[in-house]
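Example 9 (inverse folding). The structure is encoded as follows.
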């Protein structure tokens, strides 16, 4: 067991495998909601991380973060705004979307407008890096892409820049990129029975893990500061277990997908990522173990669907303190993961703390281009468990 006190019970509580929970979709939220309530009463909560009043998503139930991080614990989907890093957070002029999708799909358009996909072209970090390139046009394809299902286009390679007025590149990875069908008029989606006032049909790329193909073409290439992390996902067993990119990065929701339509189970277009601290924390399972010789080791396991992190300049820093039974510090150490030293898909990295103690106190901080100061995304007190000797 990894965590101390009530956390430990929380880690035990969800005994469904993650895949089964993911399959439950909205049920997952309910299960975790119940967990959150239970552990709220132990006084665990949101302080020091994430969900303080100023970064809880205005349109969402704030949720409660439980201090549960273990390899088998399912993902939670925090309702949290991304860290304020001084860059644009909501796409300006989203109400000018081509096709006026937002008139009817208002909720989805609002979710998308604050995603890194909507911001992919205007993003200040991207624009600044273009200025350093001799051939910036090589960078346009994934940041202002053509429709992925376009006539004659085959999945398996990065998209080209869309053939539209330059002004339209403003809308980044747009609705049409993912949803426009090969005939150029039908909108493809997950439902076989959509009652739409426009041509709509069920698309293979929206059903279950087949939606991975919507993500992989842009996310598998090393380019500029980007590590093509989808390559590792493709080598993993996540797809076989029914867990696609969408299942981790798009939070489950239940709502009408268009004004006046029936309520459906769907997924939010908000796109959770490393800027959402409570989401980022879930990339790591931590376990503190006592060796035969009495010294303590800390094991860090990657729970994401790919290596961590995925961007040059992103640093995930851990400050670790080993405390004895009276709370006095016996060892202090630090390590970090970054583009030069990623935590590989499924990897467990062992750190020898080189001393003895009863509690390991871990603080995780996220530093990235654009962040003036590192942001704390994790704080945990782990009870040291007896382990296998080395
Ligand atoms: C006049 C209102 C209206 C406009 C404008 C509109 N839609 Fe729709 N759309 C709907 C309705 C209503 C549905 C059916 C919803 C349902 O049955 O749950 C729908 C269905 C869809 C679906 C299928 C959803 C599924 O569950 O499979 C997609 C995809 C879609 N719209 C995309 C778009 C995009 C992209 C735009 C902008 C280019 C757009 N729509 C513009 C009203 C609209
Ligand atoms: C094959 C698709 C693709 C191409 C081509 C591409 N990018 Fe990107 N870019 C991405 C993806 C995917 C991300 C998100 C990576 C992440 O956040 O981990 C991204 C993110 C970025 C970011 C980071 C933005 C942030 O959130 O801080 C910068 C900067 C960037 N790209 C610059 C470039 C430059 C410069 C080029 C041209 C040399 C380029 N990109 C070409 C797919 C692409
Ligand atoms: C990066 C690709 C991507 C982009 C960009 C995108 N979508 Fe989606 N969309 C999806 C996926 C994947 C699903 C299916 C989610 C699921 O499994 O339920 C979906 C589902 C939908 C649905 C079905 C109903 C629902 O509630 O989930 C509608 C309608 C829709 N999208 C409209 C839009 C509109 C409008 C935009 C632009 C504002 C947009 N999408 C942008 C990938 C995308
Ligand atoms: C057309 C190319 C394209 C497609 C398709 C695409 N992405 Fe992205 N994605 C990008 C780019 C470009 C960025 C980074 C934008 C930026 O920060 O400048 C990005 C950003 C992200 C991020 C946020 C990273 C961060 O730093 O916060 C996540 C998570 C992500 N994408 C997941 C997905 C998933 C899941 C899908 C499939 C449903 C998908 N993407 C489809 C191009 C794409
Ligand atoms: C099991 C859940 C899970 C799956 C499956 C998953 N991811 Fe992630 N992803 C995460 C977590 C947690 C993070 C935050 C850690 C990080 O930033 O590396 C993350 C981070 C990212 C980032 C930002 C990386 C960075 O540090 O800049 C991108 C982009 C991304 N994922 C895209 C994808 C795509 C595309 C897929 C499918 C090919 C995918 N993810 C599958 C959990 C998952």
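The amino acid assigned to each position is listed next.
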């Amino acid at each position: 067991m990894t965590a101390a006190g009530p956390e430990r019970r929380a880690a035990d509580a969800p005994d469904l495998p993650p895949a089964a929970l993911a399959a439950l979709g909205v049920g997952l939220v309910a299960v975790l909601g119940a967990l959150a309530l239970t552990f709220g009463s132990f006084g665990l909560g949101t302080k020091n991380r994430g969900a303080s009043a100023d970064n809880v998503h205005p349109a969402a139930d704030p949720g409660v973060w439980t201090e549960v991080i273990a390899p088998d614990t399912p993902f939670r989907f925090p309702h949290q705004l991304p860290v304020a890093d001084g860059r644009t957070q909501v796409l300006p002029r989203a109400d000018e979307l081509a096709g006026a999708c937002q008139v009817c799909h208002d909720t989805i358009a609002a979710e998308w407008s604050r995603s890194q996909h909507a911001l992919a072209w205007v993003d200040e970090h991207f624009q600044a890096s273009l200025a350093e390139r001799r051939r910036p046009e090589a960078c346009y394809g994934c940041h202002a892409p053509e429709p992925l299902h376009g006539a004659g286009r085959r999945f398996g390679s990065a998209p080209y820049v869309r053939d539209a007025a330059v002004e339209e590149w403003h809308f980044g990875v747009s609705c049409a990129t993912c949803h426009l069908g090969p005939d150029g008029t039908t909108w493809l989606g997950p439902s076989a029975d959509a009652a739409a006032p426009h041509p709509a049909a069920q698309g293979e790329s929206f059903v279950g893990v087949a939606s991975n193909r919507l993500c992989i073409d842009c996310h598998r290439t090393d380019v500029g500061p980007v590590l093509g992390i989808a390559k590792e996902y493709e080598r993993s067993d996540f797809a076989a277990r029914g867990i696609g990119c969408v299942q981790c990065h798009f939070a489950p929701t239940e709502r009408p997908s268009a004004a006046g339509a029936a309520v459906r189970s769907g997924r939010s277009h908000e796109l959770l990522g490393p800027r959402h601290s409570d989401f980022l924390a879930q990339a790591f399972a931590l376990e503190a173990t006592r060796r035969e010789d009495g010294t303590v080791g800390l094991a860090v396991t990657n729970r994401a669907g790919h290596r961590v992190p995925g961007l040059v300049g992103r640093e995930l820093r851990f400050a670790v303190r080993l405390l004895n039974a009276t709370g006095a510090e016996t060892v202090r150490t630090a390590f970090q993961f970054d583009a030069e030293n990623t935590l590989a898909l499924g990897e467990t990295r062992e750190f020898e703390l080189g001393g003895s103690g009863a509690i390991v106190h871990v603080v995780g901080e996220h530093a990235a281009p654009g962040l003036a100061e590192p942001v704390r995304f994790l704080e945990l007190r782990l009870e040291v468990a007896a382990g296998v000797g080395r």
